[in-house]
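> example.struct
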């Protein structure tokens, strides 16, 4: 039997984390009236614009980021892994987002970054009970008048919300969804307010128990505050660095690509004067480069090939500017590690040789004219690596279309530089060190 609705005593609570429901709220009738007036004044029909918020969430600065996860190995150790996905129909993966591992008392013990598929993994987890949750600084969106109407309909009992959608609708963090929340969503949509109070993202928190050599899978959902209907599709890949779409350096235009928290040049560096293969690059105040097969067309396509000292501008400082533009530098071994892990959580930066399962695929262009076998490559990272080949210490150009080798600015204990390599038939990324006199490709990363 239907009962009359008392507008002064409607209760639409938000469930707390433990599953309990708070059960007290009194509606202020004028709030509902204001809501209706606002809807009627701007016309609730016909609007479907999403207004993304691009600022960095201030809450993020208060949360510690630790080490990026313990290195994974093939030994029988306990682990927690899973996916971070948006709470929409597409289950869009949240890339380059931070997943936290917390103790039962709420202390953060570890953190890691999701890769290009939303995957994360914690290895070597000690026995105990943990909570897994996440946060992201990806721009929010999906906030429109339809969400405001859903909040209002939920408030008066005309529709249902479940799970994260209820928490997303609680804009003022009161513990309830009411007309005030609907009004805030509508005000944000029409530009009457700049932002919502508190955190812009709502993520699940899931408990997991770890015992000896157990492997637990914990998938997490996350949603923007105010996106009641979950219609937002977060950006995934291939975006230029914010505020730096491109730059002009020594007569060449370079574009940028944001990978995780790093801003990279999307093309190999091509600066300096070409010298023939029989010559050595010298500390003579002039930047010198090799072009594959002594053909300047190959420099235009693949970039120059540089010996380590020439690339570093004859400095030994790890992370130095080298021949990169001002405010950019030669990436360190650690920075290559950070980038590799952000696109493939399986990469173990402490190992030598091939690492990861998809890093190479996501870094290489999917173009059979640039790689002899590119059928599985996706370039999902936007890094756009070409099969540029290299010049070896015997003054021989090798393996264009098969390999790309990139210097880092770091050296090992024997003072041999670290480098990274991609292979046309390889799915991962190769890490090793070698002699300085090879001629490899160079990428720059923003300071």
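> example.seq
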């Amino acid at each position: 039997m239907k009962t009359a609705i008392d507008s002064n005593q409607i209760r639409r609570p938000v469930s707390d984390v433990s599953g309990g429901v708070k059960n007290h709220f009194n509606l202020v009738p004028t709030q509902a009236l204001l809501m209706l007036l606002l809807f009627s004044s701007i016309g609730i029909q016909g609007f479907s614009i999403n207004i993304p918020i691009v600022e960095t969430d201030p809450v993020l600065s208060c949360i510690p980021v630790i080490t990026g996860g313990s290195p994974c190995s093939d030994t029988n150790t306990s682990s927690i892994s899973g996916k971070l996905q948006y709470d929409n129909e597409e289950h869009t993966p949240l890339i380059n987002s931070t997943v936290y591992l917390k103790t039962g008392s709420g202390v953060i013990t570890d953190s890691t970054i999701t890769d290009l598929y939303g995957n994360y993994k914690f290895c070597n987890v000690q026995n105990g009970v943990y909570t897994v949750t996440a946060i992201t600084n990806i721009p929010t969106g999906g906030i429109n008048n339809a969400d405001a109407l859903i909040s209002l309909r939920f408030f008066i009992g005309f529709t249902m919300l479940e799970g994260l959608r209820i928490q997303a609708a609680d804009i003022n963090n009161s513990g309830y969804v009411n007309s005030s929340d609907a009004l805030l969503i509508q005000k944000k949509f029409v530009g009457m307010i700049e932002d919502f109070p508190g955190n812009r993202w709502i993520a699940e928190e899931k408990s997991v128990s770890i015992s000896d050599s157990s492997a637990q899978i914990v998938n997490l959902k996350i949603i923007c505050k105010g996106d009641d209907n979950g219609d937002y599709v977060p950006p995934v890949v291939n975006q230029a660095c914010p505020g730096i779409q491109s730059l002009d350096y020594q007569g060449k235009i370079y574009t940028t690509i944001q990978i995780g928290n790093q801003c990279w040049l999307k093309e190999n560096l091509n600066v300096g004067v070409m010298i023939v293969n029989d010559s050595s690059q010298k500390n003579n105040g002039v930047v010198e480069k090799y072009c594959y097969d002594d053909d300047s067309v190959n420099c235009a396509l693949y970039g120059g090939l540089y010996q380590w000292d020439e690339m570093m501008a004859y400095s030994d400082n790890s992370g130095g500017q080298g021949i990169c533009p001002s405010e950019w530098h030669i990436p360190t071994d650690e920075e290559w590690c950070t980038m590799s892990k952000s696109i493939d959580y399986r990469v173990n930066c402490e190992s030598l040789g091939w690492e990861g399962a998809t890093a190479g695929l996501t870094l290489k262009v999917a173009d059979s004219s640039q790689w002899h076998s590119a059928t599985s490559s996706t370039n999902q990272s936007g890094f756009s690596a070409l099969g540029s080949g290299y010049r070896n210490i015997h003054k021989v150009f090798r393996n264009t279309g098969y390999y790309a080798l990139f210097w880092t600015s770091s050296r090992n204990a024997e003072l041999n530089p670290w480098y990274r390599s991609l292979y046309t038939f390889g799915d991962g990324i190769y890490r090793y060190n070698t002699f300085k006199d090879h001629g490899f490709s160079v990428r720059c990363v923003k300071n």
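> remarks
The longest helix spans residues 29-42.
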